Amino acid sequence: MTAPRPASVQSARPQTAAVLDVRAGTLEVRLARNAREIAAAQALRYRVFYQEMGAHPTVETALARRDFDNFDVFCDHLLVIDHARGTGDDAVVGTYRLIRREAAARIGRFYSAAEYDIRCIAEHPGAVLELGRSCIDAQWRNRPTMQLLWRGIAAYVFAYGIELMFGCASLPGTDPDALVVPLSYLYHHHLAPPVLRPRALSERYLEMNRLPPGAFDPAEALSQLPPLLKGYLRLGGFVGDGAVVDRQFNTTDVCIVVKTDLVTEKYYRHYERRVRAVAPV
Fold first, then answer.
1. How far apart are CA 141 and CA 129, in angstroms?
2. 7-278 sits in which CATH class?
3. pTM
4. Nearest 5°: phi and psi at 34?
């Protein structure tokens, strides 16, 4: 007997797609269009998070061999598709989960609210976007693929007028003593201003200020950060107050906040160039 598909796949209803047209060679970045493509993204997440990175699946997750939760039904799923691998599930080699305010309202909260007090973000008057569940297949985990994925995010941010992006970014492992240098570096060099500073929930709060500024080399500490986290910082990203240990995913999380000025400015220049290129003389 064929196992039933997870409820998150059965009832998935992708949001109206922003216009995305991002390609490089055989790779394309676009939003998932149907439940099958969302299931392919969930299968990729399972391979990366559980089989590669050592996350601990629930019984239902292990049986389905997909990483899924109730948020998947309401959010947008950004995909990296390698057309050299055909049109099946294996063609999805990267993904990002995008939750706008409207989607969060339908489920009652943003995902990050399970770890952080994010009222300062949720109450922001402009459009906000929560980023999460980012992963790329190991074979495609390189700078060109990551840059293409970010071009897709920039197009999405531009299309929806997003002013703030935020979400939980992960450091590998759950031993705070092994992460004193990167946590201290983030606290001393990238702490968000108070008006945009989420704080870890008191019952999950882990102090990030573990070492004084002179006790570590900032350049070395930066080099120890995962590529995704460094990418956020290059965009001018900040971190919230306090880290959170996520034992299910075998990570230690920090809350990232990014004002999209740099993202939208860069994409706007790209968009203007494209408009001029096709405009009649």
1. 24
2. alpha beta
3. 0.86
4. -160, 175
pLDDT digits (tens, 9 = 90+) for 232-257: 998 899 999 999 999 999 999 999 99
User: 87-118: per-residue pLDDT in tens?
Assistant: 788 899 999 999 999 999 999 999 999 999 99
SS3 15: coil
Residue 129: which of 92, 99, 159 has the closest Cα? 99
Contact 141, 104 (CB under 8 A): no
B/e letters for 136-145, b = 16+ CB within 10 Å, e = fewer, are bbeebeeeeb
Question: DSSP alpha helices (H): ranges in 30-171?
Answer: 35-45, 59-64, 101-107, 119-122, 143-160
Sign of CA dihedral 141, 41, 247, 202: positive
Q: Determine what percent of the chain falls in helix, strand and coil, rounding each to the nearest 5.
A: 45, 25, 30
User: Which two three-digit tokens encode residue 88?
Assistant: 């099946």
79 in Cβ contact with 31 (< 8 Å): yes
Residues 172 and 53: beta-carbon distance below 8 Å: yes
How many other CB atoms are found less than 10 A from the CB of residue 118?
Answer: 25
Give the start-to-end residue ranges of the domains of the chain.
Answer: 7-278
- The stretches of 11-112 forming alpha helices (DSSP H) are 35-45, 59-64, 101-107
Phi and psi based region of residue 167 (left: phi greater than 0; alpha: psi -120 to 50; beta: remaining): left
Sign for the pseudo-dihedral over CA of 83, 89, 90, 93: positive
- In terms of Cβ atoms closer than 10 Å to its own Cβ (0-12, 13-18, 19+), residue 180 is middle
Angstrom distance (rounded) from CA 163 to CA 143: 25
